[in-house]
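Something for you to look into today, if you have time. What I am after is a single protein written out in full by you. I want to see for myself how the chain folds. Could you add the entry underneath, on a fresh line?
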Amino acid sequence: MARIDTEIEGEIINSDELYRKAGAWANNVRMLGKSNASVFASGKLGTYTYPQKTKWHKKGEKEPKLSQSLSYKVKEVGGIVDGIKFQFPRHGVFRAYGVGNGQPVSGVTAKKSFKKRSMSDWIDAPIDQNIEKIADIAAEFYGDTALVNTYNTMKIVKN
């Protein structure tokens, strides 16, 4: 009978290491997004406090500058990373679409009194540029998990 080698060479990535690597990836993307948002010349000069209730905000609610407010959360299901969520104020979406200050979201030309804004992939670009890295991390984890599960269920034969 042939001998089956049961040793797996190299480092095995477990769920704790996946969480750490996913957090490091998300933090890198967050820093790139913050850098992109910090170059917006116009907009909030600091934290803005809403003096009255609006459609989206409570009276007294504080809204920081976009570059100061970008955060992330690593979501787990059953102790395994299931997703990464980036959070930022609503005006980050408006900035991405190049709208605001009364400018319409549709393709209709804005009134001449409003300054035309350009669209900005301030958060999408860093995600797109780094998506293969997080895919490689996930592939490494699930590949290692499949390998370990296969070895644990194989009948081990020794001479």
The CA atoms of residues 56 and 90 lie 9 Å apart. Residues 124-153 form the longest helix (30 residues). Strands lie at 48-49, 62-63, 71-77, 80-87. Confidence is low (pLDDT under 50) at residues 155-159.
